Amino acid sequence: MFKVGLDIGYGHTKVVTEDGKRIIFPSIAKKGEAIELDNLLGAKEDYIININGTTWYVGEMAQKESSFATRAFEQTDRYNDEAFQTMLSTALSLATQGANQDVMLVTGLPLSIYETSQKEFCGFLKGFSAHTELGGISQEVKVKEAIVFPQAGGIFFSPSCVNIKKDLPENSLVTVIDIGYRTTDCASFNFSKGSFHFLIENSFTLDIGMSSVFRPLSRAIAKKIGSIDISLEESENVYQKGVCFKNNKPVDMSDEINMLKNSIAANINEGYRSNAGQGAKINNIILAGGGSIALRDELLNIFPEAISVADTQMANALGFLSIANRFDL
Q1: 3-state helix, strand and coil shares in percent for the chain, rounded to the nearest 5
Q2: Per mean pLDDT, which of 47-51, 110-114, 252-256 is the most reliable?
Q3: DSSP state of 36
Q4: Could you give the CA distance from residue 195 to residue 205 in angstroms, rounded to a whole number?
Q5: Whether pLDDT at 216 is above 50
Q6: What CA–CA distance (Å, rounded) separates 264 from 258?
Q7: What are the C-alpha distances in Å from 243 to residues 213, 215, 220, 294, 295?
Q8: Would you state the pLDDT for residue 38?
């Protein structure tokens, strides 16, 4: 079976495969009409895909084509969401690239719904199939075997964490703080006698993510330039550049951005301290997710001994692929 690690996040969908492919695209979808991609000024992450006879715009294309594009799946039964199934079908189609072969898929669920939804979600994935047409390739994508893992926990099994695990003190804790677009997952493990045990009772989800920065920033931008509304995508762009424009003149937003960065980092710290069950053990903190890059300095001020994972945005998907390889053996 062809092994695939898949991390469908609220912000981006990340895919890695056993033959070395790495794919990332925004988790945005919109139903549309079949059109010629050559006639559009599309970006690399834009996809127009036909799934079981329905055309979807996926990625930035969805945002360009309609303000009603869907970022998808906050509910517990996320697999019933059309947009989620679109992300899944697109990811599988890109991963297999026309090769009609069965897939062994490892993916994750947020810690907040893992216990209650893992079995149902795994059951949905096993046997999932769709007919797709993407980039001129028509194929049937099918999942034969599926494993659902706690989302942030996948990072702990990524190649980036191999050396980290070698240096852990005996009978200590490891907590992965995975800061995503919509939420922050904290997954805890106990290390004892050379083995790692997932501690679901010490693992949790915080309703804080990078959108917690972009949302108030969009309001601040709108106020400064006299606009009614600024989208989260525009706000994210301003966050990265530090300026917006009013009447074609730059408006510095660095003070507002720095204030929000410090506030969100403090909120993550408060949520972590309130929920983590450290006790008297050493707790080794690993920072991961796209938010750990965007908030790096602020987080390291709070967690000065924390370790940052390399290749952090893809770390969950890479960890899921490592898990697929272990189960296959």
Answers
A1: 40, 30, 30
A2: 252-256
A3: -
A4: 24
A5: yes
A6: 10
A7: 15, 16, 12, 16, 18
A8: 47
The string of pLDDT tens digits covering residues 6-42 is 999 888 999 999 999 999 998 888 887 665 544 455 5
Q: Which range is most confident: 155-159, 164-168, 235-239?
A: 235-239
pLDDT band for position 145 (cuts 50, 70, 90): very high
Residues forming a β-bridge with 174: 189, 284
Strand partners, 191: 172, 196
**Neighbour count for residue 297 (Cβ, 10 Å):** 11
CB 62 within 8 A of CB 122: no
Which amino acid is located at 134 in the chain? L
Beta bridge partners of 185: 178, 205
Report the candidate in 210, 4, 191, 21 with the shortest Cα–Cα distance to residue 89.
4
Report the length, in residues, of the chain: 329
Q: CB–CB of 37/108 below 8 Å?
A: no
Burial 67-81 (b: 16+ CB within 10 A, else e): eebbbbbeeeebbeb
Tokens 């079908």 map to which residue? 89
Residues 6+ apart with CB under 8 A from 227: 221
Looking at per-residue pLDDT, the higher value among 132 and 172 belongs to: 132
| pLDDT at res. 67 | 55
pLDDT for position 78 = 72
Rounded Cα–Cα distance for residues 86 and 141 (Å): 12
Alpha helices for 3-150 (secondary structure H): 60-65, 82-96, 111-125
Pairwise CA distance, residues 51 & 132, whole Å: 5
Q: How far apart are CA 78 and CA 84, in angstroms?
A: 7
